[in-house]
Amino acid sequence: ETGVTQSPTHLIKTRGQQVTLRCSSQSGHNTVSWYQQALGQGPQFIFQYYREEENGRGNFPPRFSGLQFPNYSSELNVNALELDDSALYLCASSLQDRRETQYFGPGTRLLVL
Amino acid sequence: GEDVEQSLFLSVREGDSSVINCTYTDSSSTYLYWYKQEPGAGLQLLTYIFSNMDMKQDQRLTVLLNKKDKHLSLRIADTQTGDSAIYFCAENPDNFNKFYFGSGTKLNVKP
Prior knowledge:
The complex is a heterodimer of chains A (113) and B (111). Chain A is mostly beta strands. Chain A has strands spanning 5-7, 10-13, 19-24, 31-37, 44-50, 53-57, 64-68, 74-78, 87-95, 98-104, 108-112. In chain A, strand 5 and strand 6 form a beta hairpin. The N and C termini of chain A lie far apart (32 Å). In chain B, the strands form 2 sheets. In chain B, strands 2, 4, 5, 9, 10 and 11 form a 6-stranded mixed sheet that branches. Chain B has strands at residues 5-6, 9-13, 18-23, 31-37, 43-50, 55-58, 61-66, 71-76, 85-92, 100-101, 105-110. The interface between A and B is medium-sized, with 26 and 24 residues.
């Protein structure tokens, strides 16, 4: 158990809808990263939040957005859902200056119909 | 350098050693990692290695790094059925923000 929690565990949406996924970071961790893991693939970096600001972004369109709160928890929002957005969404928390401390939550499995 | 390559499958017998290989492309990667993912679960950090090291041992796990060839391997000694999972190699270039993962190697341990 890493102490990183995510909600919900599973979610079904239809194309065009919007979704919000939530992550609580491990105690003491100030940085949250989000990843998308499609079936049979490795995780792909979406973005990272540090001090409530986006601190790096992967190759994802602007309809993927996020927030980080003062308690370091985070949300991932996806607008205008597409079928290809179906994936496991993983949150990872870490300390900004300690790369080896990145720990993952169990993920939210999103199915877009 | 964002291409991390791994073989897709490895099958071993219980008690044997497993060796999972990975190649990466970004020579600036300071840290390289091995993660384990069991069915329906998130990623568990197994171990990591600093780029200035050649080898790191942690109980049954041995990581070997060949920086010249950009090759990373994970050896699991005395492999158990509980080691059956998908293993991901990841690199973290000097830009701390991004981790790049391979597609994973599915390890099947036969009793």
